């Protein structure tokens, strides 16, 4: 089920909320779990069994590892079993096609493996499960004795299909019992609507510009148009994904959960490392916690540091999709971060702020080319168009006409991607006045009104991050 | 008396803030209460009806698709929302 669909917003959500708040305290988690499994089964009527199996298995392993009298060797064995099964499952469903395809093209064989359909959200929930099992193994948390709570942690519908990746330690105390106030519910609902606005009003519309540019033959794209297009894509993917995270955080809040933030205005960053501390924070901190630091992190020699960084960024790239362009995209960022760590960091502090910002935006935007084009020749010809190598026109009347239509939206998107609107709102909030509160209330009612029109008017509306 | 005022003021504020959610509820109730339509004159087509359940169409996902189109076809005041959508698109188109 997609959050921006009528069935979700006008049937699933209100029914779940009513059941959740009208049945007694004892049933709250059962309602939420049933709703979550139903939510997953809606999109994956078969793979929901895979998820249930995965829950049962990891619940048992968690309990076995968490036993006080279990020996060290035994704990390690259980951990390895869990790692092999979870990662094996991920590899089979997500990467089998890629692996077979690569082997076939290297060896020149004609292999045909029917790649299985990708279960929605498997990359996200596998990582959640691993964070739980590893933390139990490390002795940082006690294992979850209740199967319902363990299942709820893994399958909770707000963050099930597209994150954020919630670490078990962050929600451990919230799982059995949560305090809920009406103000919390309202602010969760508003967060949800705000995320929906990012997705439906901004991402979908600016995305139209990019799909127009992408559909043009590379030789005909002017340099100006190529940049306008890929910047539009940069904005689209930000609003799409951060909008989804906002909706997830908001929905969680409506049921009393507090999830960590997943995005903190990444495009205002002034270095690549800072960008990755602000973009998809939950994934970055997962890799840091469970891959980078166990390998030694920063406290190792130069060569080991290089190895660690490349390994982490190889995996980060690979996580985003089963295709080599994602690996390239990951390694591209790995290289940049390494360069920053080894020699740029010192001189960068002396650069003017504007230069640092332009540097960041330039490299991130170029990075999205690697991300978006799965096919290498297309990627290269688009890059050539961006830098005018292939004899493309610098600017032409056709592209000006086309871009003029998007100018207003472009400006709105750039402002919305910056922290200014929030700062302005906070400024107004400090002046205690009813006009501000009234305006906010009206704003969300208007948003709700237009979403309904949009959702009824336009029927199909998929999320970009559903590929993962 | 004053405390009472404050209290009722807070309740009023909460209710007003909850409007979007109350609106969702109202739409759901209307959807359940209003009879399903079979034909749309404006769109000149038959509207989707509540689909029959078979294990087969649940498993291959076609049941889900039918429910989704049933939901958007039978949404309360559908033509009004489509009208708003199209007009607001036109307005935006002129603005740009």
Give a quick precis of the structure.
The complex is a heterodimer of chains A (468) and B (96). By secondary structure, chain A is an all-alpha fold.
What does this protein structure show overall?
The complex is a heterodimer of chains A (468) and B (96). Chain A contains 19 helices and no strands. Chain A is 72% helix and 0% strand. Chain A is mainly alpha-helical and 468 residues long. Chain B has 96 residues and is mainly alpha-helical. In chain B, strands 1-2 form a two-stranded antiparallel ribbon. Chains A and B meet through helix 1, helix 9, helix 17 and helix 19 of A and helix 1, helix 2, helix 4 and helix 5 of B.
Which helices and strands appear, and what pairs or packs with what?
The complex is a heterodimer of chains A (468) and B (96).
Chain A lengths: L5 H17 L5 H16 L3 H20 L5 H36 L14 H17 L8 H9 L1 H4 L7 H4 L10 H34 L7 H32 L17 H7 L2 H12 L9 H18 L4 H25 L4 H20 L3 H11 L10 H20 L3 H11 L3 H24 L11
Chain B lengths: L1 H16 L1 H15 L5 E2 L4 E2 L8 H5 L2 H12 L4 H18 L1
Antiparallel strand pairs in B: 1-2
């Amino acid at each position: 089920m997609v959050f921006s669909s009528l069935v979700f917003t006008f049937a699933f959500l209100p029914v779940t909320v009513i059941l959740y708040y009208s049945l007694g305290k004892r049933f709250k988690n059962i309602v939420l779990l049933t709703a979550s499994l139903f939510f997953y089964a809606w999109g994956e009527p078969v793979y929901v069994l895979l998820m249930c199996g995965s829950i049962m298995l990891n619940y048992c392993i968690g309990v076995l590892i968490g036993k006080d009298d279990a020996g060290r060797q035994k704990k390690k064995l259980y951990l390895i079993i869990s790692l092999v099964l979870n990662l094996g499952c991920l590899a089979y469903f997500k990467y089998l096609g890629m692996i077979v395809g690569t082997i076939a093209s290297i060896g020149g064989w004609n292999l045909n493996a029917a790649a299985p359909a990708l279960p929605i959200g498997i990359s996200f929930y596998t990582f959640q499960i691993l964070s739980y099992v590893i933390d139990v193994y490390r002795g940082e948390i006690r294992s979850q004795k209740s199967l319902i709570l363990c299942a709820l942690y893994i399958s909770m519908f707000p963050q099930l299909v597209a994150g954020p990746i919630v670490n078990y330690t962050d929600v451990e105390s919230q799982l059995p019992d949560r305090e809920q106030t009406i103000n919390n519910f309202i602010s969760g609902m508003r967060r949800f609507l705000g995320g929906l606005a990012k997705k439906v009003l901004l991402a979908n519309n600016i995305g139209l510009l990019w799909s127009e540019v992408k559909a043009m033959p590379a030789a005909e794209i002017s340099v100006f148009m190529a940049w306008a297009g890929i910047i539009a894509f940069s904005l689209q993917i930000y609003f799409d994904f951060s909008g989804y995270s906002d909706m997830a955080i908001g929905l969680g809040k409506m049921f009393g959960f507090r999830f960590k933030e997943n995005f903190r205005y990444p495009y205002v960053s002034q270095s690549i490392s800072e960008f990755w501390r602000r973009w998809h924070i939950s994934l970055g901190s997962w890799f840091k916690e469970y891959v980078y630091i166990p390998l030694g992190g920063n406290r190792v020699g130069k060569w080991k540091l290089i190895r660690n960084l490349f390994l982490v960024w190889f995996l980060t790239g690979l996580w985003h999709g089963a295709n080599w362009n994602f690996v390239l995209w990951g390694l591209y960022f790995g290289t940049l971060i390494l360069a920053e760590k080894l020699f740029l960091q010192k001189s960068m502090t002396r650069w003017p702020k504007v230069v640092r910002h332009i540097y960041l935006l330039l490299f991130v935007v170029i990075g999205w080319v690697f991300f978006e084009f799965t096919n290498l020749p297309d990627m290269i010809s688009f890059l050539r168009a961006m830098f005018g190598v292939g004899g493309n026109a610098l600017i032409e009347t056709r592209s000006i006409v086309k871009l003029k239509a998007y100018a207003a939206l472009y400006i709105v998107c750039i402002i919305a991607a910056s922290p200014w609107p929030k700062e302005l709102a906070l400024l107004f909030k400090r002046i205690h006045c009813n006009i501000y509160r009234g305006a906010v209330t009206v704003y969300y009612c208007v948003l709700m009104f237009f979403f309904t029109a949009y959702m009824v008017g336009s029927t199909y509306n998929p999320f970009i991050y559903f590929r993962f | 008396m004053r405390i009472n005022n404050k209290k009722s003021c807070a309740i009023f504020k909460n209710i007003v803030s909850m409007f979007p959610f109350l609106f969702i509820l109202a739409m759901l109730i209307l959807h359940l209460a209003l009879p399903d339509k079979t034909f749309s004159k404006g769109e000149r087509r038959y509207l989707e009806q509540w689909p029959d359940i078979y294990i087969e169409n649940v498993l291959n996902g076609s049941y889900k698709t039918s429910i989704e189109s049933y939901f958007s076809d039978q949404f309360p005041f559908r033509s009004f929302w489509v009208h708003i959508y199209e007009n607001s698109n036109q307005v935006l188109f002129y603005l740009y």
